[in-house]
Amino acid sequence: MSEVMKQLVVFDFDWSMADQDTDRWIFEVLAPDLRRKMKTLKNEIQWTDLVAQSLREAHSRSITKDQIIHALEIMPFHPAMVRAVTNLKARGKTTFLCLSNANSVFITTILKSKGLQELFEEIVTNPAEWDPSGLLKLRRRVDPDGPQHTCAVGCSPNMCKGEELEAFLLRNGVQYDHIAYIGDGTNDFCPILRLRSQDTVFCRTSRGLQKRIEHEGESQGLKCNIQYWGGAWEIEEKFSKL
Ligand SMILES: [Mg+2]
Ligand SMILES: [Zn+2]
After folding, report:
1. Can you tell me where the transmembrane regions are (predicted)?
2. How many A from CA of 231 to the centre of ligand 1?
């Protein structure tokens, strides 16, 4: 590869940057019965709506903002991931984008607790905010009453990460020599289809993205390089060569 001058690193958040799933973790910590209820209802209610509903139920039983923040701060997050992104950013040629189906409060709370609040150029996710009573109000990024994505790759309702990545590249206006995408889930398949032959997906093993790459990668025309990893220490190793 010729020398890369401008590089974009795109991160999924849950199980990619972090070693857990924020939406599920806070209920596992604070209200396991709500976690069970989410598992029961997840095929009936759209996921972001279900998390919003569960947050309202948690609030109604007096689970506090501080408790939720604490649960986020103790969520598994590998020190090697902090080193990997900090060192790569310090080398100067890399822009970081977060594309996540979690929400703005979960992500920024965790990033702040790791000293990474300045890492991302943009965090594309579902909007959330604390109301004065300590309820975390969450809504879908894509208004369910407005136009929905037209993606045919199998993206679930709300965000299509492929469309979101293309929209970021358009409004950002920079030509990147290399795009790296770090992901683990089935909804990370659509954006990596938009990558070019010089780009790289860093796919976490044993999860939905690996299965989709194996089953659909060739038929859907996946062009980018594929590198697999299991633990963040391997991302640290791989990022040192970017
Ligand atoms: Mg994920
Ligand atoms: Zn899509």
Report:
1. none
2. 14
Q: Could you tell me which residues are beta bridge partners of residue 204? A: 229
How far is Cα 210 from Cα 89, in angstroms, rounded to an integer? 27
The yes-or-no answer on residue 143 being catalytic is: no
10-residue stretch averages of pLDDT, the chain, 242 residues long: 84 98 98 98 97 98 98 98 98 97 98 98 98 97 92 92 96 95 97 98 98 97 98 98 94
Q: Is the pTM of this model over 0.90?
A: yes
Tokens of 59: 């609030």
CA angle centred on 171, ends 157 and 137, rounded to 5°: 45
The answer to whether the CB of 72 falls within 8 A of the CB of 111 is no
Write the Ramachandran bin of 206: left for phi over 0, alpha for psi from -120 to 50, otherwise beta: left
Q: Are 120 and 96 in contact (CB under 8 A)?
A: yes
Name every residue whose Cβ is closer than 8 Å to that of residue 36 and which is 6 or more positions away in sequence: none
Q: Find the radius of gyration of the CA atoms of the chain.
A: 18
How many Å apart are CA 145 and CA 139, to the nearest integer? Answer: 12
CATH 3.40.50.1000 fits 7-19+78-239, yes or no: yes
Cβ pair 118, 105 in contact under 8 A: no
Is 14 labeled as ligand-binding?
A: yes
Does residue 68 contact residue 219 with C-beta atoms inside 8 Å?
Answer: no
Whether residue 14 lies in the annotated active site: yes
